[in-house]
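User: Please predict the structure of the protein below. I'd like the answer in structure-token form so I can feed it into my own downstream comparison script.

Assistant: Understood. Taking the following sequence of 694 residues as input:
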Amino acid sequence: MNVISENAAQALFEEALDHHRQGRFADAEKGYSLVLAADPDHAGALHYLGLIAHQGGNHQQAETLIRRALDEDPDHALFHNSLGGVLLSTGRVAEATECFRESARLKPDFPQARSNLSAGLHNLGQDSEAEAEALEAIKLQPQFPDAYVNLGNALESLGKSSEALESANLALELQPNHGLAHAVAGSALFSLRRSMDALNHFDQALTTCPNDPVIHMNRGNALLDLGQLNEAISASQNAVKINPALAIAHAVLGGALKQQGRIGDAQRAFRNAMAAEPDRPSFHSDLLFAMHYDHGLTTQQILLEAEAWDRKFCASGEDMLSSPPAFSTDNSRPLRIGYVSADLRQHSVGYFMEAILRHHDPNAVEVFCYSNTRLEDERSALFKSLCPHWTNITQMSDEVTAKQIRDDEIDILIDLSGHTGSNRLPLFTRRPAPVQVTYLGFPGTTGLDTIDYRLTDAVADPEGADDGAYSETLMRLPSGFLCYTPPDDAPQVIARGGGPLTFGSFNNVPKINDQVIGVWSRILEKAPGTRLFLKHRSFSDGMTRQYYEALFSKFGISVDRLTLAGFIDGTDGHLAAYGQVDVALDTFPYNGTTTTTEALWMGVPVVTLAGDRHGARVSASLLTQAGLTSLIAPDIEGYVSLAVDLMADEITRKKYRLGLRERLKASALMDGSGFTRTLEEAYRHMWREKGEHP
């Protein structure tokens, strides 16, 4: 081996470093190797040769070389920072973060270390500290796009989407083609419900980061929100192909498949998400929600899956409420009632909660709302005005939220979401209140041992018929379990115009299964000349329309008898579409709820089938409250006959068109004050019963 002087070795190193900076990696690698041949312990050459290995995807060799450099110079901040970058790229986030932290400790004015530390902390879920470190990096180097990106990521996770978008835009001003800055901008815009703008940024992000699975996944989520289901499926599949372990990509895929009506495929995708990330309860909830659309599953099968959720995610004993407040039957003390919901906004749940919040008697109950709605809207503002105590819990952990509820001394805590999106069921496993109830937002059992009661009625859940399908005790309200408040901007009912007689359903597409299509096809066969009008945002997607047209074709129904309409902007436009419908057909075994009441409010009679479970009997409950039991069929043959006969009876249909709205106004279904008094009595009964039999 030729021995060269220390000065010569350093000159070789400087030359190699210049090649590296100019992007001439082969020349740089050759130069570093020559240095190490002369001086095997040259820390700089070891470090930069490790960086080249890292840039080439050989992370194991990179880690070995950089650790050797640190053995030679353990206090070199740059080396710790580089090692952190290697570890972060291999998913060792906690180790990487400690490397960045050590780098920043050794050199507090090192902006790259501060920025990278922000990224590591964000990946660990420590976003407040991540925000602080990114701001420090920007203070040290104001023209540093990566720091603005990391700041944006932290702000987005903290629920500060507008600020995150501003930070991403600052990064893009400095570097217009910064792929990750476009990705952050897209995520922030998606949270701000600007999905089309978000999609544009995700598309731009992929031009520079084509193999980033998270960007593909986020793009799929935006496409799903826009109703572009086939593209959403493709984008999610791209993410899964790049990184099969990315659990949320499987979940987004499942959501898109579900909205396309492919329930079996959706369940498989959700199970894949669960397998990839077993400790995330929301994926298991996604599966449970999808199971309710599957007419091939029994209520017992769903119960077993719900109980499996409970066993897996029930909080440990020390998290439970160790000393619940003493039970009291003293009627002079108002009960403190807490509602937990992700849907206290423009959402179907709101149409059935408004009357309750508006009519609660402050002498009977004191009301608290715990909103898990990240972006509150005008409806949220209305609910706030009706609730004396409002807390947004989107950025609060279950532990912190449970403490808040305990500090508020809530007597009865009510879940309004079940296993639907953004639920807070893990909070209920901690039992922050002595009595816990589920109500309204979900068509089946939660499976949670810590939820004591489920509110329903004797039509939706006949006495003794299927009580064994629930982990909760059923509390049946005597006059129906729902109270409807129509939207203020609903148009007036107008007389039916010309054109063919038309059946219709505006229900969620996954509810329209092959069994439903078969029965509806029989109705169309028995009512020649009629048409079927289906409307849902999923039908904005061309492939979804073709999928459903093909399903109807299998039953002999030609495309020219179908109208499959997609999204119509605005509540007034959506409701005005009922002017084209003569008779509404309910879905089964998952009935409509808001869609049923909206049809009735717009003067359209709804034919329903009273099925074998809660979700299949909700419309029967609503129609019973409205005094319209003649529209409830006991079986499929009766359902078909009822629909066909009603379509043939012009006089009766006209009476419905002209009189249904006033009938609803006068019915128990819209008696907000009376319903709420009954509900408050039920709360008092639960409180007493739980106190007597804890």
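That's the full token string. Residues 672-692 form the longest helix (21 residues).
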